[in-house]
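Narrative of activities, Objective 1.

The group set out to show that a structural description can be obtained from nothing but a protein's sequence at a throughput compatible with the screening campaign. Below is one input-output pair from the validation batch, recorded exactly as produced.
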Amino acid sequence: MVLTIIVIAIIAIIAIFLITMYNGLVKLRNWVQEAWSQIDVQLKRRHDLIPNLVNTVKGYAEHERETLESVVEARSQLVNGTPQERIDADNQIEGALKSVFALSESYPDLKANQNFLNLQEELTTTENKVAYSRQLYNKTVADYNIKLQSFPTNILAGMFNFKQEDLLSVPEEDREVPDVSF
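Output recorded for this entry:
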């Protein structure tokens, strides 16, 4: 009788241990998805702001068509694709927006336009939120991947087909230090 109780207790402890590990993996996987959805929300916000910005700039800089078309083209790529493809499109938009803001330097009336200034401020705020969301996503993915690779969770993760997630990376051209001279 005592032996039966000990065996049942050991089986119960092992079952509780496995359930806890499995639930931990599920929780981390859902946090990764939630972190990505935060990035997605910010990208959508940026996506919605861009047409207003382009239309505002068009009124002042009609002959800068190539710059504005690159922003619109990058914007259209932002809504489709895998997370990494969307982040790549986001990086293209970031570069294109820098060109638009640099363009404003050549047009004093545009630079002083309150609508343009408001859009610029909103985009700057959105850029900061995107950057924060990327950091949160990478931290969450790192925690999840560490859990997947750690013993004994890696055994359970393999049995239930949990897959590692990719970290978001910075494009090579953004790694270069800008040349600042006075």
